Give the backbone structure.
Amino acid sequence: MDNGSSNNKGLIMKVLVAGGAGFVGTNLIKRLLKDGHEVVSVDNYSTGLLSNHQDGCEYIKVDLSDSSHKHLAWSQEKFQLKTPDVIYHMAAIARIQPSFTHPKYTFDSNVTSTLNILEWARENNTPIVFAGSSSSHGDKYSNPYTLSKSHGEELIKLYNKVYDLPTTICRFYNVYGPHQLTEGEYCTLIGIFETLYKEDRPLTITGDGEQRRDFTHVDDIVDGLIKCGEAHLDVWGNGDVNGQLFELGRGKNYSVNEIAASFGDNYPIKYIDGKPGEMRETLCTDTLANDILNWKPTINVIDYIKENVI
């Protein structure tokens, strides 16, 4: 399957996207709808946006971290939610720095919600594709966000091993692209730079700017997610994804200084103090996604900035 193509066997999936009003979830839903699937989104709208709603998708507001909801069973009854063929668990409170201020909220959102979805999936024997994080390669005790995502991954592995629940973990590397947050404490680096550039303000760089990131376009991320979901349902039969952990990164990184320079050689830059808990470098070197899924990221961040921002 090529990026952006419809599934090649005409299978119509019933899909539940947790976090479907957020950045990655919205792009995933757009692709699923384009491929002709039935899609339902659940989101608490803490960072998700009503403006992200897509025609053809059913949206349900629910706090997945609330254990009183009994593993989403109440939503299934109240909203007549069909048991999905696959669940994409994209719901999370992202970003490292806000997690220092809101550790409990971070763990409730990233760990308790994952446990609740796993329980609901276990009751229905529904495969889960989980959004992991490349920050798991760093010191998981350096900040609450990284530890919370690591705990989420461990829960996924536990349910796969103990309960034979079909699962796949996809670790994301510095995702950017359409529907990314461009303001507020949870926005991405590319989103921050985009806002500053449009407002003719200097690009703000923390530390020396030589920290390197493997920026991966959301369309490439979505393609990897789609391939995992379809493989769980044996759509195209190119390897077993059950229990696998895939690293979804472009495989090339750039320094923050290099990203800033792509906005123009003479565009003003402002340096501020570095922030705690951040990795010095992210770079995907794992090829398993290519080997099993034939996943090949194609979009370069510098080209994206020049074509879509400047």
